[in-house]
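[SOLVED] Need 3D model of a three-part complex

Original post:
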Amino acid sequence: MAAELVDPRALPPPPSGAHPVRIAGRYGLLVVAAVVVAFPIYVAVAVSIQPSDRLLRFPAVLIPGDLRLDTFERAFTQARLGRYLVNSAVVSLVITAGQLVTSILAAYAFAYLRFPAKRVLFVAFIATLMVPSEVTIVANYETVQRLGWLDSYQGLTVPFLATAFGTFLLRQSFLQVPRDLRDAAALDGYGHWGFLAGVAVPLARPMIAALGVFSFLLSWNQYLWPLLITNDDAYRTVQIGLKALASTNIDQLNVIMAGTVIAALPIFALLVLFQRQLIRGLTSGAVKG
Amino acid sequence: MRPNRPLRPWLAVALAAVLVLGACGDDSGTAAPGDVDPERCPVDALDDVTAPVTVELWHAMTAENDTTLQALARDYNASQDRVQVRLVFQGTYDETADKYLAALRGGQLPAIVQLEETRLQMAIDSGGFLPAQACVEAAGYDLSDHLEPVLDAFTVEDVLWPMPFNTSTPILYYNTTAFERAGLDVDTPPRTFDEMRSFSEQIVSSGAARSGFSLELSAWYVEQWLAKANETLLDNDNGRTARATEVRLDTPEALAIFEFVVDMINDGLATSVGRNVSGIDSLLALASGDAAMTIETSAALGSVYAVLDEGQFPDVGVGVGPMPGPDEGGVLVGGAALYLVERGASSEQKAAAWDFVRWLNEPEQQARWHAGTGYIPIRKSSVDLPAVADLWAERPGFRVSYDQLVGSTADFGGPVVGPYRDVREAIVTAMERMVLQGVAPADALATAKQEADAAIRSYNARVRE
Amino acid sequence: MVGPDEGDVAVAVSPRREWPLALLMLAPSIAVFVVFVFYPLGRTVWLGLYEVDPFGNRYWAGLGQYAEVLSSPAFRGSLWTTVVFTLITVPAGLVAGLALAVLAHRRLRGIAVFRTLFASTVATSVAVASLMWLTMLNPSTGVVNQVLKALGQDPINFLGHPSWALPAVALATVWLHLGFTFIVMSAGLQSVPDELLESARIDGAGPWMRFWHVTVPMLSPTILFALVVLTISAFQSFGQIDLLTQGGPLGHTNVVVYSVFRNVSSNPGVASVQALALFVIVLGLTLVQFRYLERRVFYGS
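Solution:
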């Protein structure tokens, strides 16, 4: 599938002889759409870099003036935003790494190994996709509480260390390893671990990367679970920290928006750096990998 | 005095004496100090510590109130080497209470929880707290310098449950610039419902602001207005002489309050900011010219002045007056208090928690707290300190809330009932139905009464022996 | 979904000795699923049978609690709110995402800038997006109301008005998911063969004809996928409610998940029943998804 977002070569050219007016019309629509879509982000950035006394002046608020960046500094000092960002990074990286390991292993077993109750287990894996995490929060909260994992990285990560979605995705990729490669590996006396590390994983690398970026995005954006199980600033993720920042600084709109902009930046960076993987991850359910 | 029924096995100790007293028909004045076992509060446990004891305080303070509390905690930590206090913000008062209840069932509890005044009964029923009374007695702590209404508010069956800390009342905020534009005297704010209406008419007709009042749909204001009319919200003297069984929303006074609110809004004289989810919308409406007056907690004063001192709103001058109401009766203690956690706490932690709340209650700290936030200084001697006297001379608005509380003629404390959150929810929902959906005030009140009474019945039945 | 046996290919080791290795490889996933999916699911059913007081003491309530909760006006109200919320956000999101994708599906100078902008909301989390909209929609200070006032209109308390609150939250939600929908639709569009459109054009089909009779049918699997993902995510929406309206005004935005959250600590039994109802609904939707995916993969192979 086409995983390019901004490579214009993947797009059809304007029909030959297209009227300049029609092209201009399309540009017009594109500009209007872009303004509408980007407006909330623009407002957030504009508010975050202006002193408060400008925020009530319309339309001056939309034309930033008297710029200042101390709002960003205050977002860090007044709300431990740095700590929240570190927590989010740790939690997201642990979940991503964990999901990759568990789903590579499980996908390999489902793709290449024969064992009893395989079909039953496969169906059980499918079944987990049908249980949204919101459904089990009452009982999971209890479990994590009993384990003493409230306010801990374990509590924030362990429940998410396996993914049936990732398992399916990687199993599909593994199954596409050409048959003669498998036979050759068998002839060369590769064991399962050797075949996994030397052939299957390298060949499935694009899909693994896509899954990784996708997992990172989902964990970074988690809201309900971290809100429920963190009571301590030291373990709050940036999403929950933002909520705290917004409530403790109700009188400092520009500081709130500065924190919001900071919280969005890592994912913007992800979007730019790993665009191809991100798009493949987001669309892999739609178009077969 | 009729006692509440003992509700939890672990409350048996605390309530046994009360039961006996109740059976004898004693009144509250004669309770023996034996009500609570002072042994439960090992005030001397810090004497032998070799390393500082760290205690957590879960709070719900925002804006300047958060900043001031942080500063106080820093200074306390620096002032001695036995206790280190860690403040943890837990969201709104409701979210903080939810976090406490959840942690009670098996999580890590802090040493101190800040709970809204409405949570008193629930806090008692939860069985997780050490009554401050035990520490007061164990330490021989003198409460005679505290404001009586504040102590009364947090005392049930002669037991002081939390240590008071942040006490507020609602006050009137108005934009003096808008008053001037409307030709109103900036030193004479409205005192009654009638004046609220006539002032608002003048503000709107003169174009000084889009409307007279911005109004949060708040159950707290309803309770306060009832108190102004010398009415309680709950039966059994607001649940203070016996467990409350129903709300008194079927009174003419309640109806008059509801009618006033909806008429002001429907006549374009007041703007509803709904539930004021952001916590600041009612005040922002003054800054944006949507309204010229609002009612807000006195605890917003510190933040309001901080914002104005920054020069954020050059067109706004702030005026402060007592809360206008249907009558000149009393006001009730609002705000929150600090509960000492007993469940799972070591002797050192209990002693450390007590040491900190005791420190926060000292006149100097209360003076500083007042100046930073607008909360009422709860010590009589605080107001003689230069910090308060100078502030009051410079910004008389700060003393309004204090005078209002001290001068209150209400002879009853604020409501005490287990499912207070549900009761408030029923009242606010009724206001929303009335304001947003056009339901008649009497019908909205009747539904609210049904809902609140059902919640009370269900709570009283669920929290069984 | 392809059946599990299709991929059975022994590599080197004899099948009889493969099960210990399979067990080792599956164990981590199975452990997580058992502890954090299957056990809590059963536990939730059990919790639903108990009344729990705010302090965590359990009392047997039996199936009566299920009947009571499911038939309560409060629950039905929040279910209805959830359905309405879904019926607003999903079609609006699909149309907006598809429109943007079609609009940007041309090799034009500077198109990369537009495509990046359209995809950008994928980088905003629910908390980020909600705080942005909270700021814009504030009745006194928000930009939207400042525009209204500049136009001589009365300001609107969007998040506090019963008629506006749900549409306002829905708007923020559509915006939040727009990047995702755009990316998915764009990828789908790029897999529509140009030759097909070209031959339709030669046959004299105008742009609308080509769109409805070539593009949309070819895109239908993508649209269906986006439909299912958006629907399920609409049913799970929580963060935007928590930050924008807290379920109000008058419960007009009190979706099921928010109501579950509100009850987790104060009324876990009721929360359990509500969560299970949500489960049944999402299960139904997910089954639709799987049936569809199965067909897709079958035809695709």
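Edit: The radius of gyration of chain A is 24 Å.
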